[in-house]
């Protein structure tokens, strides 16, 4: 007897796909390239082992992630195309990204040119604005969760701790501590504004190869994020334009405070719950302050979330980003249709990973 014909009009299942090579491993199982047998389209198949989910008490997160992804379809997000399950696993069929994540490229290159970072930040700003219009905040934006396609376009992924938001502020602490906004760590309550802070931390890290706030312990890192001034490397003016400093720090910066920065400690671990004091009063005095002209603008790393770049309501925050001097080279219309040629092409990513 021959094989049973596949019913492509019925519910999607694993038999609809040709299973190809494994390309990674997630928290709950492997990720592999698959090809749809009817359309011949390639996707990433994410295995989510049910037993592991139960053991890690992550079932609500997986259910929430699927529900959120079903609402989303955007050119700079890793979109969900199919979802199904069997007795052992849940399966997410996602857009295939063959260019690797920005953490891999950052570790390989050390840092990235400002023009390349600006391109990624524009694409991610478009994605975040789309999510916020839907009432969704990501809560875990970092280089590890930014994937490149084979052409070099950036895409936001990992919605495992993303949530819907409303007028009421949230208080739960979730995500990766090094990228958390100060209002999270200070327990002041927060909303979607935190994603713009995390984007600023990513931009700084990609340009300078280190994060703007650091600490050898959770307490030190909390103090740095909530209280300390941004530390700029000695070669800031060589790596980053004044507009680039402004988009991070805010203000019309005529000069940049620079200092020698010691080697960075290991990446702070991802934490689900971090209990930090609600009042932090260290004796911190910056060595110097930037010289500002009378005309000021907000930046992504503004501690006052109401003044932070991107945070004005009703879509005005995204318009502020589009109008910002740093983003002037971006043609937003062709960017969002992916007509622009990315400044960095991640050729041979998986060959390098294997080698």
UniProtKB/TrEMBL annotation:
Please, which domain of life does this record's source organism belong to? Eukaryota
Keyword terms: ATP-binding, Kinase, Nucleotide-binding, Serine/threonine-protein kinase, Transferase
Q: Which PROSITE patterns match?
A: AGC_KINASE_CTER (PS51285), PROTEIN_KINASE_ATP (PS00107), PROTEIN_KINASE_DOM (PS50011), PROTEIN_KINASE_ST (PS00108)
Q: Which residues form the Protein kinase domain?
A: 17-327
Name the positions where ATP binds: 46
Domain AGC-kinase C-terminal intervals: 328-355
**UniProt xrefs under Pfam families:** Pkinase (PF00069)
Which Gene3D superfamilies does the UniProt entry name for this protein? Phosphorylase Kinase, domain 1 (3.30.200.20), Transferase(Phosphotransferase) domain 1 (1.10.510.10)
One GO MF annotation is: ATP binding
Among SUPFAM superfamilies, the record links this protein to: Protein kinase-like (PK-like) (SSF56112)
Family membership noted in the UniProt record: Belongs to the protein kinase superfamily.
Record PANTHER family: G PROTEIN-COUPLED RECEPTOR KINASE/RIBOSOMAL PROTEIN S6 KINASE, SERINE_THREONINE-PROTEIN KINASE 32B ISOFORM X1
Task: Please report the name of this protein according to its UniProt entry.
Answer: Protein kinase domain-containing protein
């Amino acid at each position: 007897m021959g094989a049973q014909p596949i019913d492509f009009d019925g519910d999607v299942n694993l038999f609809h796909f040709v299973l190809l090579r494994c390309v990674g491993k997630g928290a709950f199982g492997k990720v592999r390239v698959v090809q749809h047998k009817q359309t011949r389209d390639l996707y990433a198949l994410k295995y989510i082992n049910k037993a592991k989910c139960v053991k890690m008490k992550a079932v609500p997160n997986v259910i929430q992630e699927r529900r959120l992804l079903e609402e989303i379809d955007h050119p700079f997000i890793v979109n969900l195309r199919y979802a199904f399950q069997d007795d052992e696993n849940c399966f997410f069929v996602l857009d295939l990204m063959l260019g690797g994540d920005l953490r891999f490229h950052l570790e390989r290159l050390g840092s990235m040119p400002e023009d390349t970072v600006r391109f990624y930040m524009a694409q991610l700003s478009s994605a975040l604005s789309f999510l916020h219009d839907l009432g969704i905040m990501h809560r875990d934006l970092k280089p590890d969760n930014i994937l490149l396609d084979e052409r070099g376009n950036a895409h936001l992924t990992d919605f495992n701790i993303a949530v819907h938001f409303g007028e009421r502020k949230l208080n739960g602490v979730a995500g990766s501590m090094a990228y958390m906004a100060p209002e999270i760590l200070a327990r002041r309550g927060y909303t979607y504004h935190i994603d713009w802070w995390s984007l600023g931390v990513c931009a700084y890290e990609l340009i300078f190869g280190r994060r703007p706030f650091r600490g050898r312990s959770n307490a030190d890192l909390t103090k740095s994020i909530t209280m300390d001034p941004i530390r700029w490397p000695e070669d800031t003016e060589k790596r980053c334009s004044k507009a680039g400093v402004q988009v991070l720090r805010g203000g019309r910066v005529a000069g940049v405070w620079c200092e020698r920065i010691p080697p960075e400690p290991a990446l702070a671990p991802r934490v689900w719950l971090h209990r930090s004091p609600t009042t932090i009063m260290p004796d911190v005095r910056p060595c110097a302050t930037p010289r500002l002209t009378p005309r000021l603008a907000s930046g992504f790393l503004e501690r006052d979330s109401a003044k932070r770049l991107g945070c004005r309501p009703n879509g005005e925050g995204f318009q502020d980003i589009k109008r910002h001097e740093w983003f002037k080279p971006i043609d937003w219309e062709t960017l969002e249709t992916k007509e622009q040629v990315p400044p960095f092409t991640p050729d041979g990513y998986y060959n390098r990973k294997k080698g």
